[in-house]
Amino acid sequence: MSAETRPVLAAEGITQRFGPVEVLSDVSLTLLPGEVHALIGENGAGKSTLMKILSGHLVPTGGRVLLDGAPLGAGGVREAERRGVVLVHQEILLAPDLTAAENIFLGREPRRGLVIDRRAMNRDAGAALADLGAQIPPDTPVHRLSIAQRQLVQIARALLVPHRAVIFDEPTASLTPHETEALIAVIRRIRERGVGILYISHRLPEVKLLATRVTVLRDGRRVDTVPAETLDTAGMARLMVGRDVARLYPERADAGESAETVLEAEDVQVPGFVHGASFRLGRGEILGFAGLVGAGRTELMEGILALRPATGCVRLDGREVRFRKPADAMRAGIVYLSEDRKGKGLLLAQDLRTNLTLAALRKFAGGLGINRAREDAALQTAIREFDIRTRDPRLLAGQLSGGNQQKLLLAKMMLLDPRIVVIDEPTRGIDIGTKAEIYRFVAELAKGGTSVIVVSSEMPELIGLCDRILVMREGRVAGEVAGERMTERAIVMLATGTNEKEAALVAEDA
């Protein structure tokens, strides 16, 4: 086999068991120099486990990993990186109190003698971020960055290591369309240098755009490996879930402007983020919030729900309310599902039962403590009703796939019997089958009279799910689109402020 066709990275008969449970079964694939090989499958199919094995983070129960034809030894991650295999994690693994530059160069800081050369570090970090299309000052502490910006810092850090094979695990899940385009351009440049790229994504149009070959996993087994040119996105989805996903978005029952108003926000100010935002929410309405990263959508919701300092007037059923802490909003019937389900939504080191019942412990009080039998029954009900796929209900929340974590978070909040549900990035990093389930659940909530606010960077998601969409720009509500007027063009023009006169006409007449 020639050097050009010999795989730079290969999995041969990989099997992985955790206790008695087999999560990968006899999986094989190859990664060639200069190709983008996409790995797709539903949440829980085994993709992330396979990536951890290929990058040395896990030792497989059976099978072996080959780098340039030679087995990966006992050196694990360090050996894999030394031999040119780099994993860009889906999870954000950064030190929040360090700057972007310090995170990028952590453990490999440039030095002038015995002293860190901060000027060189900031300069080179700035160049690495600019190469990704990121406008992030390198001396900014990471805790001040958005999730999308943190992901770009993490990618910049990974790509500084000399690499022959790069594994991207959902790299665009938290990126804007502009940032995604910049990253795709970087991936193409890397590929042109002869680097092999293994690419995991639930965004099937990206897979179609980038991939040379596609491998599909289902239930821990390899279904097929096919040339990307032979598949369209519908074909990919069919291989992933084992059936046709006929309709992604449910039929909408139009709540519209005639619905009874349940929530009003007037002139809400969140210092540094939101400047005088106002909106109304109808009973049983699904109201979307669109806008670029940094437009203030998340901060507006957090301000209203007392997760951030804010001023302005909030009314429930026409009566002014003041939430001093998030628990006040929950008691009033408003629940919030954070975009950061791992950091703010769930306790990853705790079991499913603890996560499910924590916010509604009063329901499970009995005698001198908590009624564990009642908690266990609630967990079994949640697993059944929300289709939480778990091999063992005693698992920790962090051991679930991303889609099942989101289902657990939904189940947790529904125990509070909310009147209003605010969901921030409801399907980030979630496969197409689970997306359809979550969309149906949101539609059923609205049909039952619950009002829903959806904050999302996915314009097709907002258009397919919502009754109305408010578009934010630079901390203000720039405009509204509804019904047939909801188009990606109208949203983009309002979000960017491009030719506002034309944007208004588009919103009226599109």
UniProtKB/TrEMBL annotation:
Please tell me whether the keyword Transport is annotated for this protein.
yes
Single GO molecular function: ATP binding
Keyword list (alphabetical) reads:
ATP-binding, Nucleotide-binding, Repeat, Sugar transport, Transport
Domain ABC transporter, by residue range, is 9-244, 257-499
Entry similarity comment: Belongs to the ABC transporter superfamily.
User: What is this protein's name?
Assistant: Monosaccharide ABC transporter ATP-binding protein, CUT2 family
